[in-house]
Design goal:
Number of helices: 11
Bound molecules: adenosine-5'-triphosphate
Distance between the termini: 41 Å
Oligomer: single chain
Largest sheet: 6 strands, mixed
Strand content: 25-35%
Radius of gyration: 25 Å
Helix content: 25-40%
Order of helices and strands: EEEHEEHEHHHEHEHEEHEHEEHEH
Length: 318
Amino acid sequence: MSNPSPVLNIQNVSKSYGKVEALKDTSFDVNPGEIFALLGPNGAGKTTLIGCITGLILRFTGNIKVAGYDVKTHSKITRQLVGLVPQELNFDPFFNVEQVLYYQSGFFNVPPRAEKIEKILRDFGLWEKRKANTRALSGGMKRRLMICKALMHDPVLLFLDEPTAGVDVELREELWKYVLKLKERGVTIFLTTHYLEEAEQLADRIAFIDKGKVLMVEKREDLLNHFERRWNRITLKGPLSRELETSLQSEGVSVEDEQTIIINSSKALAAGEVLEIQTILDEIKASGNHIVQIDGGRNSLESIFREILQETPVDPKS
Ligand code: ATP
């Protein structure tokens, strides 16, 4: 089956602010219905890219199409097709919740139908607060109202620029539920974040950007499988004998302290090189020592990101 036409097509986009190259020859597609996460540290170029797509930044080189329409030559159409939830809260503090959505409709020339406002507010758990002044909303409600605003003109592609920056864990998880609900309804979501856990929880595909350069675009599962490292920490009852320590180290086992060892196994290694944990356990028992505890896990997207950044040679011109 051939791939569906991308809802967003970015080709060779570059943008400079004076000597700062905020985006360098960026190209990738976003498919309809997916959650696409763009990950990168502060200043990587995420907001600049969103600005180019959504029409906030007009001067850049390269081409961007939304649902097949060029953002420079068909900006009226493409602005109608995208919704943007920016990092900063941007509603009038003197309006109530309902009024915010009513006036938002006007910006996009959409008739402010009462039923539509009611539906959106109910979907996002804000109906009871419709008469509340926006200043009286909690942080989580304000963030949800921002998403409601961006949905008033039924965009096909919704941008969430660091939607959970600076919010606590509980609120972050609450917002994730709403984002997943939107995906269920077929809205394509383009998310920027530097919370790697956020991308791991939500995204179908993940792109890494650093210093204006997109380093990698992968399906989340492929990314985790490709770079996956498993580890086990084994706590021993007594101290390691000198001979056992030497033997384990020669097998690639790390000694954390005299009673703790760490085994790192890697799918990236050739099959024959993967350490078999059982042989190590047998070796420990044969030495007369006992195992008190075995912990284990796999590395996080955080460490994968660090690994990707390290593997990418620094461009001497930048
Ligand atoms: P953050 O996660 O901190 O929001 P970001 O990945 O969104 O960062 P951008 O805001 O796109 O990064 O910035 C990319 C680079 O471009 C940075 O070096 C930034 O200082 C620079 N930059 C962005 N906007 C401007 C501007 N209007 N004028 C000059 N430089 C800018």
